[in-house]
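Encode chain A's predicted structure.
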Amino acid sequence: MFDPLGALTDAFTSFLFGKVETTRLPVRTSTGQAQAVYLPTAAPGLGDSGVIIGREVYSGKGYIYDPFQLYGQQLPAPHWLVLGESGNGKSALEKTYVLRQLRFRDRQVVVLDAQGEDGVGEWNLIAQELGITPIRLDPTAALNGGIRLNPLDPSITTTGQLALLRTIIEVAMGRGLDERSGFALKVAHAAVLNDFDSADTTGGSKGNRTPSKRQPVLTDIVEQLRHPQAESAEAMNVDIDDVRAWGLDVALVLDRLVDGDLRGMFDGPTTAGIDLDAPLIVFDLSHIDRNSIAMPILMAIVGVWLEHTWIRPDRKKRIFLVEEAWHIINSPFVAQLFQRLLKFGRRLGLSFVAVVHHLSDVVDGAAAKEAAAILKMASTRTIYAQKADEARATGQVLGLPRWAVEIIPTLTPGIAVWDVNGNVQVVKHLITEAERPLVYTDRAMTEASSMPTDEARALEAAADAEAEARAEAMAMERQLRDESSETVA
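Encoded structure for chain A:
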């Protein structure tokens, strides 16, 4: 109803003071268009139980990850792949993750430390802090009472020993064993075990052998290959000279481990006193040439030895972290051994962590099929900064969303894309002051830490702010692009 007095009052007020109220016409829009006025939001987290990694860049909330807590619910497998170029924070992530996992009483960790400087491995400081002596495998030190691992250790099953011997030979030869060479190796291995079992159980000698309580070693296999027993040839109705010829190449390869450039590490009984109950076990491989054939052989021996001596059904959660893991994944023979270990380990609470610089190192190699199988088992993938071409290739292999592939080349050190079984987020890894001197061990980081603390923190904060702003801008751009596509549609 029209109010004459109200209208007169409004006219008089407007005349004295001007128009005091305006009327805005309504705007009609859709929720898809209106959501652009809100800040980008992050995907749901992984829960609040486990190890804190850092904070999710878009939302700022804490990012917590633990494969043992997530297994069976959000994760089909507890294995983890870490990718990225050097200097972006992979090493710091690995070390803080292990240190934080060891706060739980039911955790055990084995690390294959393939990098180092100043004569020690990269994990040496952490081992010292925890009062642990690394197991340093060094061909030079092995000749003077150093650490030895025996591929014929009695703790390894007979089947495991033969599989390990085949792998060692195939890696060294660069090809698979043919049937005849495989037969020669099998009968030599059986003869050695038979001789030692006979000596131990009867208390007497077999033939001209004397009783012995020592472990069988590679030297015994080489001797059997050079001088096969007549029974072995008669069982297959072949000539003894044929068996000797079939095993000649095998004997030459194993002789390298006994008397060649790897002498001392594998040609004797396993060194006593290795504490397999310690919370952290570090195998220091930094004295081995990373580009030599010794590295994959060494990893195969360590992996199989741990499978039969360390992994037990005792309800402990175990983490097996391998640096330079391309030595494993890029060799079809070693990859087959570890593929079995990963399948077996899921039942006994094993999380395998593989650290690789470039995915192209493994997917384009000779073990593409085996590498694909191992990558498929890794339900968690963490990708640090990579060049654009490498990021596109990585995204294609791992099935990452387009926005994640686009952001990978722009990531700054310490920030990574995390893909946990399809839950993809951008995470800033956070390091405490107590952890900082233990995880930043390379020269570049040591030099950077020499600047005043306040200045270092200011630079780090500025870098974080810049990275987050860039990530948010890309998220907003992606969101607007998606909205435009919806509008056109």
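Residues 92 and 439 are 5 Å apart (CA to CA).
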